[in-house]
Design goal:
This protein is mainly alpha-helical and 234 residues long. The protein has nine helices and two strands, in the order H-H-H-H-H-H-E-E-H-H-H. It has a domain at 104-230: Cytochrome Bc1 Complex, Chain D, domain 2 (Orthogonal Bundle), CATH 1.10.760. Strand 1 and strand 2 (164-170) form a beta hairpin. It binds heme C. Heme C (HEC) binds next to helix 4, helix 5, helix 6, strand 1 and strand 2.
Length: 234
């Protein structure tokens, strides 16, 4: 027997002379009334005046969170130095933090992997027919000026390396290219000159600066012949 079919209640006697409304109200028995109110109660809390206090657990949560952020911020604010995460930060350029010694080989290694290795390969052997090797190349381990000039302006046209001829385009890392500074160019050339089987002396920032000044007028990439005129193969 469904609720709808049960038309009335046991306790609710319709009042004598009850009208239409009373008859309708009577159609809901006490049980149904209680049931409906229980539902309403479950869905909406009893309205009351004033405001409900924030639960204690939530306040504790926020307290812990604020405390933690405060501690974290105090510890890791980096003195609010804008250059604190800069890859170009130089020891001694401000900030009283302990000085980090500049390691040209580490720096050169990173510059090499991020730039040169795509073409010349991580092992410095290049790609036959496309990119010449740097490992054992006289262009690398020979006259330092020649190597610095290649990095600063790039190289194009035929070039012979270890008995093979290449003819491609080597990009520029100088003013007309990626614009690396003296320190980075000294780091990359030193790294390449001392990697794999190469064992040539380091190239100093001073030398890079001198070469930079001497080629200020040169705009495009070098050709191999141009470089060999200035610095013949040893
Ligand atoms: C886009 C590819 C490419 C990248 C990147 C590149 N090179 Fe080259 N590199 C070449 C090509 C091609 C040549 C040969 C150019 C020619 O044929 O005249 C060359 C030639 C050279 C040479 C002279 C030849 C030899 O093998 O010794 C040196 C030295 C050199 N690159 C060093 C570097 C260094 C250092 C870097 C990173 C700073 C670098 N290259 C990045 C393509 C590249």
């Amino acid at each position: 027997m469904s609720d709808q079919e049960k038309p009335s209640s046991h306790n609710h006697e319709p009042a004598p002379g009850a009208g239409h409304e009373q008859h309708e109200a009577a159609a809901y028995g006490d049980e149904e009334m209680v049931h409906v109110h229980k539902q309403l109660e479950r869905e909406n809390g009893e309205p009351e005046e004033g405001f409900t206090p924030v639960p204690l657990a939530l306040m504790v949560c926020f307290g812990v969170l604020f405390f933690w952020t405060g501690m974290y911020f105090t510890k890791y604010n980096g003195d609010f130095r804008p250059d604190v995460f800069s890859a170009d930060w130089r020891p001694g350029s401000g900030g009283q933090q302990g000085e980090v010694a500049f390691d040209p080989i580490k720096r050169g290694d990173r510059l090499f992997s991020n730039n040169c290795a795509t073409c010349h390969q991580a092992d410095g052997n290049g790609v036959p027919g496309a990119f010449p090797p740097l490992d054992g190349s006289p262009w690398v381990v020979g006259a330092p000026e020649r190597f610095v000039k290649i990095v600063m302006r790039g190289l194009q046209g035929p070039v012979e390396v270890k008995g093979n001829t290449y003819n491609g385009n080597m990009p520029s890392y100088g003013e007309n290219g990626l614009d690396w500074d003296d320190r980075d160019i000294s780091a990359i050339t030193t790294f390449v000159r001392q990697s794999w089987s190469n064992e040539a002396p380091a190239i100093s920032e001073e030398l890079v600066a001198e070469v930079r000044a001497s080629i200020a007028d040169k705009s495009g990439a070098w050709s191999a012949d141009e470089l060999l005129d200035m610095h013949p193969m040893e």
